[in-house]
Design goal:
Number of helices of chain B: 0
Number of strands of chain B: 11
Order of helices and strands of chain A: EEEEEEEEEEE
Number of helices of chain A: 0
Oligomer: heterodimer
Structural class of chain B: mainly beta
Number of strands of chain A: 11
Distance between the termini of chain B: 38 Å
Radius of gyration of chain A: 14 Å
Helix content of chain A: under 10%
Structural class of chain A: mainly beta
Strand content of chain B: over 45%
Order of helices and strands of chain B: EEEEEEEEEEE
Radius of gyration of chain B: 13 Å
Distance between the termini of chain A: 37 Å
Largest sheet of chain B: 6 strands, mixed
Largest sheet of chain A: 7 strands, mixed
Shape of chain B: globular
Strand content of chain A: over 45%
């Protein structure tokens, strides 16, 4: 159980285009999903917290107009990188928290997707 | 400001021996700690966690120790296996409904046959 998928796994795009990344919880409902990015040999940096049915909460320094997050259902959150530039090239990873376990179980934790490698030319 | 620190970027051990991965944190508000394992081009996989009310949690070959006074935790893997070779991330949370995780930079563990 607790499988999180991401699509696409890899995308290459031209500078100036927009790219949408999907994150799905396959066998559980996730009221909260998180979006991270990871640069080579660096840690995972939280970009934003996505709550189903409400606006995302962005971390300091993350442009909300550039990284659009939509969490329309309990199993799907999307991250859209708008007007992508080469400096946006990174590994984007989502995670989801099992709503049933939230706060009530020692196994309450985040389950991560496999990540999306974005390369902007 | 790196609130979760993994000062060893890499660690190499022999198969069958113990692997000890260390993690330090600075934020005394953290009350939940996790270890994740990550292979290249994949998302992290949850390994084991510990609440601040405990000082030890064991799951099979994996044991996490927490020393709150020292703001230090460690992950012990025994016996180490070649398949354990991966990057290990320490993460911490302040709890609450948002459950935001702060990650360390990771330690690359290599287990030699």
């Amino acid at each position: 159980g607790a499988v999180v998928s991401q699509h696409p796994s890899r995308v290459i795009c031209k500078s100036g285009t927009s790219v949408k990344i999907e994150c799905r919880s396959l066998d559980f409902q996730a009221t909260t999903m998180f979006w991270y990015r990871q640069f080579p040999k660096k840690s995972l940096m939280l970009m934003a917290t996505s709550n189903e049915g409400s606006k995302a909460t962005y971390e300091q320094g993350v442009e909300k107009d550039k990284f659009l997050i939509n969490h329309a259902s309990l199993t799907l959150s999307t991250l859209t990188v708008t007007s992508a530039h080469p400096e946006d090239s990174s590994f984007y990873i989502c995670s989801a928290r099992d709503a049933k376990l939230a706060g009530r179980s020692s196994t309450d934790t985040q389950y991560f997707g496999p990540g999306t490698r974005l390369t902007v030319l | 400001d790196q609130q979760v620190k993994q000062n060893s970027p890499s660690l190499s051990v022999q198969e069958g021996r113990i692997s000890i991965l260390n993690c330090d944190y600075t934020n005394s508000m953290f009350d939940y700690f996790l270890w994740y394992k990550k292979y290249p081009a994949e998302g992290p996989t949850f390994l084991i966690s510990i609440s601040s009310i405990k000082d030890k949690n064991e799951d099979g070959r994996f044991t996490v120790f927490l020393n709150k006074s020292a703001k230090h935790l460690s992950l012990h893997i025994v016996p180490s296996q070649p398949g354990d070779s991966a990057v290990y991330f320490c993460a911490a949370s302040r709890g609450g409904s948002n459950y935001k995780l702060t990650f360390g930079k990771g330690t690359l563990l290599t287990v030699n046959p």
